[in-house]
Amino acid sequence: MLNRAAWARILPFLAYMAFIVVADLLSRVGVDAATLRWLYPIKIGFVFLLLVVFWRQYQELASWRCSARLLAVAAAAGVVVLVLWLNLAAGWMVMGQSSGFDPRSGGQIDWSLALPRLAGATLVVPVMEELFWRSFLMRWLVHQDFEQVAPQQVGWGSWAVSSLLFGIEHNLWLAGLVAGLIYGFLYRRSGNIWAAIVAHGVTNGLLGIWIISTANWSYW
Description:
By secondary structure, the protein is mainly alpha-helical.
């Protein structure tokens, strides 16, 4: 059911999620939040290493093929998702509680923590998540041999289901759902995974800058 190309997209995502579970377990046994912040650079570094190891399996990343117009559309989509993310935060739109990520030490921002968080969210997470949610899952729901499924062949059902699961992954589930629908639509329409990655990166990058500027750490 799952070939090497599938595992190349699944394992970085599973590693990322495993670190979240480990952080939760460590907090339950008494490890303080300040110490746990250092897990994030380790997590991002490990996920980045897996992406490098499996890079040859990501055939759709081998060619950039992004026109200036497509890049502009992707960037605009990323900004739209950011605006929605900051506004879709009413009580019923939130699932659980997010402890966030506070990079301050002694009341001052510790840039050795803040910069890896910003870089990871902007450059590593979009690649990892788009490869899993869009490149793999959205097409795998159409056919197990997902690499033979062109993005334009993905039906509305697969697009909706993968987007819903993407939303549930996030504390702001409705914002996550809408983000998944937008990134997925961009991928389906353009046939280019880089477009979804750029949009995702723009959202995360601008969100990170906003978080640092306003000290709304819960959004991290």
